[in-house]
């Protein structure tokens, strides 16, 4: 039985992680973590998730060493918890987005001592989509304009989404480019004629949209659209649990969902 720790256990993603871990026959909830002072601290994680008592209280510190820690929290919390979990030799699955370059560097350093799957989107479908986007960009080339539009709920803290950036990097890789050299984030005013080679990335925030990503390849006379729609957060949770099963017995290193899926 794989022992799982969940950081951010009372959040939207954390609650679904608790619920699906409880359903899985090969996984057991070992620890549920939240920030100091969170109103859920001390409560049973299963009751907070709406699945009944599991006998695991939400705490601020790790009281039982897990095999794998899963994190969908905030960037600073994710890096700090990763270091704590590495101290007890737990493998890591990090789905938190919005990490800056310094935080990513810290995570890379931690991954030199424990195995870590780090992915902006844990959905199996999104990661297959990223692979298709790279292939399409490589095959279609500079003659096709590339535009990425993502939409999420009003509560999302970062923009554009980590997934949109992942898709942008896949498209840039297919073109033999670096995303930071060709990306344009939204447009406003007299922008002039669209130059060849741009990758446009645009963010929508509204209501309770779980997650939508559309990659458009367009040229004079035709258009191709590759699209992924998430209907519930469970798609990300199931991908994270798949990553947890993968990373549990891997050597130290930084892994992606492409590694998990063998792409």
Description:
It is a single chain. With about 260 residues, this protein is α/β, with parallel strands linked by helices. It has 2 domains: about 1-120 and about 235-260, Rossmann fold, CATH 3.40.50; about 125-230, Dihydrodipicolinate Reductase, domain 2, CATH 3.30.360. It contains 9 helices and 12 strands. Strands 3-2-1-4-5-6-12 form a 7-stranded parallel β-sheet, with helices on both faces. Helix 1 crosses helix 8 (about 235-245), helix 3 runs parallel beside helix 4 (about 100-110) and helix 5 (about 125-140) runs parallel beside helix 6.
What are its keywords?
263 residues; alpha/beta; Rossmann fold; Dihydrodipicolinate Reductase, domain 2; 2 domains; 7-stranded parallel β-sheet; 9 helices
CATH topology heading of the largest domain: Rossmann fold
- The CATH H-level homologous superfamily of the largest domain: NAD(P)-binding Rossmann-like Domain
Tally of discrete structural domains: 2
Instruction: Please estimate the helix content.
Output: 25-40%
The CATH class label of the largest domain is: Alpha Beta
Mean pLDDT over all positions:
95
Outline the fold blueprint.
Blueprint: E1 2-7, H1 12-23, E2 27-33, H2 45-49, E3 58-59, E4 68-71, H3 75-87, E5 91-94, H4 101-110, E6 115-118, H5 124-140, E7 145-152, H6 162-175, H7 179-182, E8 183-185, E9 199-205, E10 211-219, E11 222-230, H8 234-247, E12 253-255, H9 257-261
Parallel strand pairs: 1-2, 1-4, 2-3, 4-5, 5-6, 6-12, 7-9, 8-9
Antiparallel strand pairs: 7-10, 10-11
């Amino acid at each position: 039985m794989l022992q799982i720790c969940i950081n951010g256990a009372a959040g939207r993603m954390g609650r679904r992680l608790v619920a699906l871990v409880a359903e899985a026959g090969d996984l057991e909830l070992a620890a549920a973590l939240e920030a100091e002072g969170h109103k859920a601290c001390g409560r049973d994680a299963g009751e907070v998730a709406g699945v009944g008592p599991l006998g695991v209280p939400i705490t601020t510190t790790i009281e039982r060493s897990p095999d794998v820690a899963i994190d969908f929290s905030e960037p600073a919390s994710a890096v700090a918890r990763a270091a704590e979990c590495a101290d007890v030799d737990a493998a890591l699955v990090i789905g938190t987005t919005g990490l800056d370059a310094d935080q990513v560097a810290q995570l890379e350093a931690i991954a030199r001592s424990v195995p870590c799957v780090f992915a902006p989107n844990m959905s199996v479908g999104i990661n297959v989509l990223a692979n298709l986007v790279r292939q399409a960009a490589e095959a279609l080339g500079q003659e096709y304009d590339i535009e990425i539009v993502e939409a999420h709920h009003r509560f999302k803290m970062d923009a554009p989404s980590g997934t949109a950036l992942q898709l942008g990097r896949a498209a840039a890789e297919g073109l033999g480019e670096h995303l930071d050299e060709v990306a344009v984030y939204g447009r406003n005013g007299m922008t002039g004629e669209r130059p060849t080679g741009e990758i446009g990335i645009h963010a929508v925030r509204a209501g309770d949209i779980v997650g939508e990503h559309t990659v458009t390849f367009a040229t004079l006379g035709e258009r191709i659209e590759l699209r992924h729609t998430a209907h519930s957060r469970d798609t990300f949770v199931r991908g994270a649990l798949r990553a947890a099963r993968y990373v549990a017995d891997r050597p130290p290193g930084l892994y992606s969902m492409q590694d998990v899926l063998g792409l």
